[in-house]
Amino acid sequence: MNPKMSQLRKKAMALPLLPGVYIMHDKSGKIIYIGKAKALKNRVSQYFGSQNNHAEKVRRMVDNVDDFEYIITDSEFEALILECSLIKQHTPKYNILLKDDKGYSYIRISSGDWKKLSYTLQKKDDGAEYIGPYKSSYYVKNAVEEANKIFMLPTCNRQFPRDCGKGRPCLNYHIKQCMAPCTGRVRLKDYNENLNRALEFLRGGSTNSIKKLTEEMENAAENLEFERAASIRDIIKSVRKMSDKQKVVATKIDDGDVIAGFSDDGKTCYQVFRFEGGRLFDRESFVFDSGESESETEEFLLRYYTLRDSVPKSIAIDREFDGMEEIAEWLSQKHGSKVGITVPQRGDRAQLVAMCKSNAAETLAQKKGATVREYNVLEELRDLLGLKKLPEYIESYDISNLAGTENVAGMIVYKNGKPLKSAYRKFKIKGFEGQDDYASMAEVLTRRFDEYYKNPDENEGFGKLPDLILLDGGKGQVAAVKEVLQSKNIDVPLFGLVKDDKHRTRAVTGEGGEIALSPGRSLFAFLAKMQDEVHRFAIGYHHSRRSKNTFKSSLTGIEGIGEVRARSLLKYFRTIENISNADLAELENAPKMTKDAALAVYKYYHTQDENETE
């Protein structure tokens, strides 16, 4: 906690109730955050009060504040303009800072007779032809990919005519997305005809392209070139299909931007859909550390449109915020005419905002190494168990033994809803003999967290604290492990997974009692799969130890063979069968073996064979 907190709060409480900009400095005097306020006293004093309601990013910023200064303005709008200017000038660490690295994009047409289409961010002096520049790399990338598919142009690394007839066509040929000049059966004339059609499509759009293709098809039919006419007809269908796909997104949508955000566990993603000419022409996403939810959208809009030369007439967003009027006024000045910011509740724009938010969630999930489906299951688990944060890192434990012998445990890890097998661990119960699942579970968790305290800052393996611990068992196991966590001062949510009389997952149990699970739901399937996985892992280790000990016991019954030689023989020959089939010379050559020991082993198995034959 900041040692100057009380001093800073005292200074903040003396601020005027006027609009203005506040500037936070660290010990070195460097500016680390700039913000605006309608009433400086109210806004700044919030930072130096209780930290419980602040996001992690805000707490980190406050811990680094050594002093602050402020500038009074005549209005909140003036404060916004000044804030924007100062952030652009100083780029403080704890403000949302977006980087505009999109640049311009080009359509590239390679040199040579068999030209290829591609998209690129840089124009080079390489003899190729370039079309552009275009503002949207998203639009160029999608347009080139669609053109190559529709007009069946190759996108592979093969060079033509050098590689014509030298290899079999790839999958794209079989799914009718490439005419496959590699087969050597495509004429250059036909290839260039499709290339020119693709360029016409890229330059003139789908409407003009369909018009010209229709004329070509009709001329081919009149000249009785029915095969060529059928080929053009198929191309027209593909162009129309692609055009219809765009219309699904573009129906009744005017020019404008759609913006939505999604936040979880200290991270926020904002997605931007940009519409021009009635269609989606650009899409961008930005991921950064979460700040304060109340001002985050306002701050994002400021940073985003500071980077943009052009501002649309309308912006649809997913939530209201306090400074909407000031932001709209600032954007209107930038645009030169009125800009409207709305939070649509119904209709096409509301659907687009929902789609934009869903894409923001997908992007954030992918950044964390999960799919939206897995992310949703973790959210459902968090809500069901009343957890404070998303359980991205889960450890699950199970005990396995046979009438108290070969008592072992398995630990599995799920990261972002998926098994993390590199983090799985096995435990041999050492503290006692016999069967006691409660004591076994307590021993395993004690050893696990003893290892944590040896390397608490590694943030991997045993050096990482889980977000959730799930035990295979009921109240008894939970109570035994709860004592361990309390004695080790470990604050991690703990629950048990309870099975029914048919050994199927039935409920989750904790200190507050059982929580029933509804079969058929994705969360039920997720927990059942996890419980099956930890059981498989633990029982697999148990079987492995039983097998080894069975092998060892049969070997150690032979005169001259102790634990060390038995282990060495198994390591060398791999199986008892291989040992029993080995001849005397092979046994003598095995590590740690003497002639007498080898002869004893040989006689043991060969005498057994003779007895069995009799």
UniProtKB/TrEMBL annotation:
Main location, first listed in the record: cytoplasm
Residues of the UVR domain: 207-242
UvrC family homology region profile domain segment(s): 258-485
Entry annotated with the keyword DNA damage: yes
Domain of life: Bacteria
Subunit description: Interacts with UvrB in an incision complex.
Family classification: Belongs to the UvrC family.
Protein name, per record: UvrABC system protein C
Organism the protein comes from: Ruminococcoides intestinale
